[in-house]
Amino acid sequence: MGFFSGLEGSLEKYIEGFFRDKFRGRVQPLEIAKKLAREMRERKRVSVNLVYAPHEYDVFLHPEDYSAISFLAGALSRELQDYISQKAGEKDFTLVAHPLVKFYEDTDLKPGQIRVGGKFGNSTAGVSGDGDVEAGAKNEFEDTLNYRPSRDTAPIPVIRQSQVYFLEVMDGPLAGKVFRLEGYPVVVGRRESCDITLPDANMSRRHARLEPQKSGWLVTDLDSTNGTFVNGDRISARKLENGDSVKFGATLCAFKVD
Length: 258
Fold this sequence. Notes:
- The protein is of the alpha+beta class.
- The chain has 2 domains: 21-119, 2-Layer Sandwich (hypothetical protein PF0899 fold), CATH 3.30.2320; 165-257, Tumour Suppressor Smad4 (Sandwich), CATH 2.60.200.
- It contains 4 helices and 16 strands.
- It has a 6-stranded antiparallel beta sheet with strand order 7-6-16-15-12-13, with no helix packed on it. A 5-stranded mixed beta sheet has the order 9-8-10-11-14, with no helix packed on it.
- β15 (245-248) and β16 form a beta hairpin.
- α2 (29-42) packs across α4 (73-91).
- The longest helix is centred in the N-terminal third of the chain and has 22 residues, at 2-23.
- The N and C termini lie far apart (71 Å).
């Protein structure tokens, strides 16, 4: 028994050392797991009898970090998926499907930084639990924007929309990016936990809020430093019309209705 115990201990030390060497100076799997757990909590949806949590998660890494984990992407994805299931059970959250974790490159991130996006929907590209790597995978998680209720407040009802609303970035770091607006309030800012994250140094962490109304959308400035502008006018709150230009910091967007 002593021999086998010693052998087992040696193997554990070897494996731990192997991962330390591979991930030295880079992101650690435990850091990713913590980010996923936080994303689950922040993007939950409160229903009448249940609390739903996102089941699909996109993990964005600097290209060097992405390359460092690609050799074990399949195993790491499966382990993180099991972790999400476990955490959901601990919190009494309901998952509408088996968890899915995928990895993507993001050249806007610095080495060691992690950005996580959770959603209720289907993903079609990236590095997933089967270990396949698809080159040029695009960031798709922005298309699903989820309501996060404030603590000790009643859930905000979903506004059923007969039209489809979009916010398109016309000028700024994410020029060309289109965000679909669902029937839930969303916060725009440079903080990673915002519903729409725009990496603009001129924006406040929580810059503005977009809220669905019975007929259209309302934009409200959240006491941002550099202000929110609609069609060139600085506003505190204003109802948006199709084609309106909305400026957050130095990022210019267009509000569109389809």
